[in-house]
Each structure stands twice: as C-alpha cells, then as structure tokens.
Amino acid sequence: MNPQIENNFSYHSPKPGQPEVYQEIREKAKELAYLIDKLAPNSREKALAMTNLEQSVMWANAAVARN
Questions:
Q1: Whole-model pTM?
Q2: CA dist list (Å): 16 to 6, 9, 31
Q3: Domain residue spans in the chain?
Q4: DSSP state of 67
Q5: What pLDDT digit, counting tens, does each position of 16-66 carry?
Q6: Contact 14, 49 (CB under 8 A)
C-alpha cells in the first residue's frame, strides 16, 4: 500500500478553519482573474492564463485538504 496514493485519492472532509482558507485563496485568485481580464487582450494566451489560475486554486485547495 502506498500512503501517498491513498491520501491523494481519498475524500478529505473539511476540518475546522479550512473553508475559510479555501475562500481566501479563491478571493485572491478572483482579484487576479479580474486584473488579467482587464489588461490582457482576448487571446489563447489569456484563456490559458485563466485556466492555469483555476488550476492553481484547485491545487492550493488540495494542498490544504490533503495536508
């Protein structure tokens, strides 16, 4: 059995204080998303920036949940 695999593919119910952390991460990412939307011209690169920002939020939240 691999503990890393078990951890990564298990449900992690929120512990006290975690929902607030998730919200703070999302709020800051949203600020950046609006800045990118305002300053970057519509393009494939802008779309990729937005997609990768979404991924960053998901991975940051996974870091909180898994650890």
A1: 0.88
A2: 22, 21, 25
A3: 15-66
A4: -
A5: 999 999 999 999 999 999 999 999 999 999 999 999 999 999 999 999 999
A6: no
